[in-house]
Write a structure and sequence with these properties.
Helix content is 35%, strand content 28%. The chain has 19 helices and 34 strands. The protein binds guanosine-5'-diphosphate (GDP) and magnesium ion.
Length: 633
């Protein structure tokens, strides 16, 4: 089976990177630039090298005349190994050092040092340059890398280089294909008849034609029409591959380099990141709190300021936790590597690893903050997940947690199961989403509900309970309605609340009238009973109960029945009226309004609404100006 690895080039300008790629692959990446501008080639600076072990090394070589470091930063994130080029005639130059610093900060783990232009120097000189390079590499991630002298002109050393590449390629590990799609966009262009094409190195997930993906942070959505991997049309692209995506529904002007093509909803763009920062030994000066810097993540460059969480200033060589407050939103994930460059003059000053994405603004000089960040940075995956769970303030999904803790969703699910078995959290699976509720959050919610119900019962002692929708909008508006209902059911089962229809009450609560309220009700009842078929109209009725709440309570008990907008009758009066009417109808078959009025000893004003009420209750039916028993058809 063929496998792909991505090889980057780095090194001082004019040291022979492009010439080397051409000597290895036959592709002139500088010429590709023109072809790409004319719409002939999709891949800018991309040259495939077929290694005979079935491995295709895609060499990414950015054109020399572009702003190299920015381009290198854009490419280096997805690079499996780097060809670190030093011209034998010039030796180590300023950009040689800066590129090495960047590779180191980005944790590029594998590299081959290529000493080019050996045809221009003698053996003694070559020996000196080799030593110079070895000492430069000492203490970096590339220390001990093979150093191979070549001449791209005579071809000397190229075979050794191919052999070294093949050996190293065999040790490259494939990236996980699961997880959300995340493709940092490094190039955008149109191809006539095709539309918009985006390229980048897929850092997680896989893409197929037909997928709908979102360009973040702009959140412009488009559908994948077709895909190329390393210049060849394909039906599926995986993490770790160079991908060109042809998107329908997106205009070139809507996309910017540095944005990210992602699974919709998988990432939230943020302005704040918390990070572990290493300041380069060769940084030109102290890094001060709130200093404005250029922040590079993937193909993105954003301006921002640094909040030094445990220092006022950082000397060269220092390691520290910082918060980066960015001037524009970025898409990031925990464990991402980044680089920081000075605002002006533009030089690389440091870089590090993202520890938190978004989240709180931390207070400076707090031991507990720094300790927690340290645990997140260096703790086991399980410890990191626990750390994240400690600060959540609402239900979270395994997907949220995988982004926050920098784990795969499978790892997250496994850990959650363990914690669930240990009783440390609650899991609710509703439809195809799982919600995690920590024990602490559950306790806090139960407490909040208890307080809310107590307060409600105190303020509305005549109401049987808190309408559950009101409680939801007050305390639980941010959680999915289905989860809310599951929680209510759990609390009812645990006898923490009593759930009756649409209302919630504290266990043991029941409406209790004060002696005075009982007296008021009694007086109202006497009044109503004294004129059963001619009740007071609504305004007067209300005033009988004095307190509107008491009136509501009385209605709730169904002792009063609303007959129309104006009149409420006692339940017992309605029953009595119906009994009298029933007897009349049994004897006479029909009843007129006048007959009913006389029967009940009342006036038409009360009698008519009452008869209409019986019509509506399907006890009677109208036949012209008479009424008879209702007969179901
Ligand atoms: N003599 C000699 N010249 C070389 C060699 N490699 C590159 N060059 C020349 O050095 C110059 C810069 O090379 P290029 O590949 O464009 O450098 P890049 O900026 O690192 O991509 C060109 O004029 C090349 O022809 C080599 O091995 N030997
Ligand atoms: Mg070049």
């Amino acid at each position: 089976m063929e496998s792909f690895i991505i090889v980057g080039t780095a090194g001082h300008v004019d040291h022979g990177k492009t010439q080397l790629v051409k000597a290895l692959t036959g592709v002139d990446t500088d010429r590709l630039k023109e072809e790409q501008e004319r719409g002939i080639s999709i891949e800018l600076g991309f040259a495939p090298l077929y290694l005979d072990s079935g491995v295709v090394a895609g060499i990414v070589d950015v054109p020399g005349h572009e702003r190299f470091v920015k381009n290198m930063l854009a490419g280096a994130g997805g690079v499996d190994l780097v060809l670190f080029v030093v011209a034998a005639d010039e030796g180590v130059m300023p950009q040689t050092r800066e590129h090495l610093d960047i590779l180191n900060l980005l944790h590029v783990q594998k590299g081959i040092v290529v000493l080019t232009k050996t045809d221009l120097v003698d053996q003694d000189w070559l020996q000196l340059v080799q030593e110079e390079v070895r000492s430069l590499l000492a203490g970096t991630r590339l220390a001990g890398s093979p150093v191979i002298p070549v001449s791209s002109i005579t071809g000397e050393g190229l075979d050794q280089l191919r052999t070294a590449l093949k050996q190293m390629a065999a040790t490259v590990q494939s990236k996980p294909r699961t997880g959300p799609v995340r493709l940092p966009i490094d190039r955008i262009f149109t191809i006539t008849g095709f539309g918009t094409v985006l390229t980048g190195t897929l850092s997680s997930g896989s893409i197929r034609p037909g997928d709908v993906l979102s360009i973040m942070p702009a959140e412009v959505q488009g559908r994948v029409r077709s895909l190329q991997v390393h210049g060849v049309k394909t039906e599926e692209a995986h993490a770790g591959q160079r991908v060109a995506v042809n998107l329908v529904g997106v205009e070139v002007g809507e996309v910017e380099r540095g944005e990210v093509l992602a699974t919709p909803g998988a990432f939230t763009p943020v302005h704040r990141l918390t990070a572990w920062l290493h300041v380069l030994q060769g940084a030109p000066r102290l890094l001060k709190n709130w200093q404005r810097v250029r922040f590079h993540l993937g193909a993105k460059e954003a301006l921002g300021r640094l909040r030094l969480l445990g220092h006022d200033e950082l000397p060269p060589g220092a390691d520290a936790f910082v918060q980066v407050e960015l001037e524009e939103p970025v898409v990031a994930a925990v464990h991402d590597r980044f680089v920081i460059r000075q605002y002006s003059p533009v030089t690389t000053v440091g870089g590090g690893e993202i520890v938190e994405v978004g989240g709180l603004r931390h207070r400076r000089f707090r031991a507990e903050v720094l300790e927690r960040l340290e645990r997140k940075l260096s703790g086991s995956p399980f410890a990191r997940l626990k750390e994240e769970l400690q600060v959540v303030r609402g239900p979270v999904t395994p997907g949220d947690l995988s982004v926050k803790a920098g784990l795969t969703t499978d790892e997250v699910r496994r850990f959650l199961e363990e914690m669930h078995e240990a009783g440390d959290l609650f899991l609710y699976t509703l439809g195809n989403e799982t919600y995690v509720v920590t024990a602490a959050l559950m306790a806090a919610w139960e407490q909040a509900v208890e307080v809310a119900l107590e307060q409600y019962h105190r303020q509305s002692p005549l109401r049987s309970g808190y309408p559950k929708e009101e409680l939801r909008s007050r305390i639980f508006s941010a959680i999915p309605p289905r989860l809310y209902q599951s929680l209510l059911d759990k609390w009812a089962a645990d006898r923490k609340v009593v759930l009756t229809g649409q209302t919630l009450a504290r266990p043991g609560f029941s409406v209790k009238l004060t002696p005075q309220q009982q007296e008021t009700c009694q007086e109202a009842l006497v009044t109503l009973q004294s004129q059963p078929f001619a009740p007071p109209a609504i305004e007067e009725l209300r005033s009988l109960f004095k307190d509107p709440e008491l009136f509501q309570y009385y209605l709730q008990q169904e002792s009063l029945v609303k007959v129309d907008e104006e009149f409420y009758f006692l339940r017992e009066s309605i029953d009595r009226a119906w009994q009298l009417l029933q007897e009349f109808l049994v004897r006479n078959g029909t009843v007129t309004v006048a007959e009913a009025r006389d029967l009940l000893g009342t006036s038409r004003r009360y009698c008519l609404p009452l008869l209409e009420f019986f019509d509506q209750s399907r006890k009677t039916r109208r036949l012209g100006d008479k009424r008879a028993f209702f007969q179901p058809k």
